[in-house]
Amino acid sequence: MTNFNKSEYITIISERKKVVISVSSILYIVMEGKTAEIHLSDGKIYNTRMTFVALEAMLGDGFIKAHRGCIVSAMAIHEISDMIDLVNGEKLEYARRRKNNIIESLQTSRKRIIKGFDHDGVPDTEDQYHDYYRSFDEMPFAFTDIEMVFNEECEAVDWIFRYANEALARLEKLPLEKLIGQSFGTLFSNMDAKWLKGYERSTLYGETLELMDYSPEIDTHLKVICFPTFKGHCGCILFDVDKIWFEQHSEDSAKTLARYYAKLPNNK
């Protein structure tokens, strides 16, 4: 998990109550006059009387100034185009004159994290990776540990298979010995970069994510759960969605599913 914020939590007064907020849950903050609107990843919004300067000082350099009345978490940025596209589907306006500064600030925050990817505790050889993950060898689901490859702009551009089990080889339709130690882009010339954003977030920010999309490389609709493992790596559990089913046995199942779908970007 990234640790570039000054504090893991901030304390504010909202509606005359003291509220403790995890900094990692903050997407962005917008000033409305003398009131700061703090938007969180779970959809909650807290209003508090605080100056913009005080907020910037409290949050540290993990936040980027979009314009004079808005700061956004570097962790929350999916892409910068004509708008700042956030991971939850929202879009924020930014001052056009600040575009290069915003991009540079985002790269700087990512570079700081990547620079901290030391090799302590990371296996050195294929055998060491296999020893570490041996319990996954015979699992019925596909599993792999991948090492992310970043370019000079600190964007993930590929990944290398460091460990994979036989179920992963069957899913990828390649022999295991051809997967290990190879980059995905080398193996699949039609590599679809859409998976990179999720793997990048898991690797940089320590998030556990679920991705569901079509993989043209293997002509399969996939469900992928990715999570951080070693520094610079993430683990991925993959399922062919045509081979998994959802069973509902109680009202709680429906409630749980509703909570899950409420997290989708289009439902924010």
Automatic annotation (TrEMBL):
Pfam families: LytTR (PF04397). Residues 10-108 form the HTH LytTR-type domain. It comes from the Bacteria. One of its GO terms (molecular function) is DNA binding. This is HTH LytTR-type domain-containing protein. It comes from [Eubacterium] siraeum CAG:80.
